[in-house]
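From the pipeline queue, job 12 of 40. The input is one protein chain; the requested action is below.

Action: predict structure.
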Amino acid sequence: MGAPLCLEVASVFLLAFLGYHGIAFAHESPPGHSCPPSYSSSYIPFPEQNYGPPANPPGRSADEVYERFLRATRGNPVEALQRYAETKEWRRKEGMDRILKDPHPHFHVIKQNYPHYFHLRGLCNEPVYYETPAKINLNAIRSAGLTMDGLLRHYALVTEFMWTHVERSQHSKSIYVIDLAGIRLRDFAGEVIKFVKSAASFISQHYPERSGTIFVVNAPLWFNVIWKVVKPIIDPVTVEKVRVVRGEDNIRRELNEKIPIENIPPEYGGLSMPLGNSPEEHLLAELMRHNNDPCGI
């Protein structure tokens, strides 16, 4: 594939990823510049867990879930009801209400070959999620007998875990750090990017009003070309949420504008524990251990 065609494919991918087709962020509310009154800048520890979503989690009433869809459609009740109905059907079809209770035998293989982590909180107590798509080892994942559909189901599980265990409020939004270190232009036409695009599609469709700030870090220089092409035709609300940053000092400084330095992992110049060792990651691993135990212990 020639460079011009690669750039075209990459631009289309980035548009899809950022929701140019109205799926992801184009209809979402603008990012706030101050924390809601109920938020705290300090890390909130996990409550006691019983290895499954609570029967009636705080902020999970049908009315409050519908409100997110209403905000995502800028107050259009017809569109909001349609999207809400589609999400309820998707959840029924995909068994989302039991996904955190089902066995997941490939969990450790995926975690070893796909760098993605929950890691502490932002200044407004937002859950923070880190991901490095270029480091996904699809060959090792396939060798373990896992298909792309299985990998997407894992991503659905991780997303459901975020919004039922890590953060239960219907008003909370996340901080997403996508690290493009090592990504090549030709990767934008490969299976890894197909996976990222598919995952972004169902998350944006069925988990609206959840995106706060998106940090794109360690992007190669050619990414600037794509961003310049895409930026003028993306909804301004989305553009305001995205920060493209490179360079260790710049990344640490930008992250620190949204995340306390003690909550930033050392991989990005912070003072916390390394990625993979946060309380959220330990809780997820323990939940999967419990689900995979045939005795349910």
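Job complete. The first strand starts at residue 116 and ends at 121.
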